[in-house]
Write a structure and sequence with these properties.
With about 250 residues, this protein is α+β, with helices and mostly antiparallel strands. The chain has four helices and twelve strands. Strands 1, 2, 3, 4, 5, 6 and 12 form a seven-stranded mixed beta sheet that branches. The chain has a five-stranded antiparallel beta sheet with strand order 8-7-9-10-11.
């Protein structure tokens, strides 16, 4: 277990590089993403207020391995300060491995896995108690802004254009959101997530991860999607909404 930290609290990046630089097939990414979703299901289906981050991470790892994958620790994201990480699980916020998660605060988390050399990732935000109207508003604002971005993903569009649209959408319904960030990553070498060049147009063959992260008055929120640019197909099926477990 270790905590991650970086100068930019919302920067998404990876230190992993490959020798070939070859892009993975869409089917390989889809399978890796499916395994990441198995980890997501392990979090949601087994979550109770009595669990600690370390226990949740252990549940995720068992589920991911049973589905044919393993953790991809060098591809951990969202990267922000503070965040708690173990194996395939990252939980945003200041947490201890033996400390129970607060039922009233949003739990923003990501699952990042490796399946036969290809990385897959999903992210979501949930709450263990009835959320306030303000938290629901803030989560809906971030999710709707990301959905609007996904509608614009196409070959020839730059990440900078997507980011501008995202920021404008959040501003229209801001609520208590702050430090909102849109990150676009390319899955370049199978196991390598790379931050996309903001001014370089997306290629139709790209598989990208688009992640929206922000702080609210109640805690961090993250929503995310993995998309094949040419077909505009979303490769993951994690709900892009605040998940209420009550």
């Amino acid at each position: 277990m270790h905590e991650t930290a970086c100068d930019d609290p919302f920067r998404l990046a990876s230190a992993v590089r490959t020798d070939t630089g070859m892009r993975p097939s869409v089917s390989a990414v889809r399978e890796a993403t499916r395994v990441a979703e198995v980890g997501y299901t392990a979090v949601v289906d087994r979550m109770t207020p009595a669990l600690t981050p370390a226990e949740i991470a252990a549940n995720v790892l068992r589920s991911v391995r049973s589905a044919g994958g393993g953790p991809a620790p060098d591809n951990t994201f969202p990267r922000r300060d503070p965040a708690w990480h173990q194996d395939a699980l990252t939980v945003l916020g200041a947490h201890r491995e033996d400390e129970r998660l607060a039922a009233q605060a949003p739990i923003a988390f990501a699952i990042t896995v490796n399946v036969a050399g290809t990385a897959g990732t999903v992210a979501a935000t949930m709450v263990l108690d009835e959320p306030s109207a303000q938290l629901r508003h803030d989560a809906a604002t971030l999710a709707d802004a990301l959905r609007g971005v996904l509608d614009q993903v196409a070959a020839g569009v730059t990440p900078l254009v997507l980011e501008s649209a995202f920021l404008a959408a959040v501003e229209r319904r801001r609520g208590t959101l702050r430090r909102e960030t849109l990150a676009v990553l390319r899955l370049a070498g199978g196991s390598a997530f790379e931050t996309a060049d903001a001014t370089k147009a997306l290629d139709g063959t790209d598989v990208i991860v688009v992640s929206a992260t922000a702080d609210s008055a109640h805690g961090g929120i993250v929503f995310q999607a993995t998309v094949h640019v040419d077909s505009a197909e979303r490769l993951d099926g994690v709900p892009m909404r605040l998940i209420e477990l009550r």
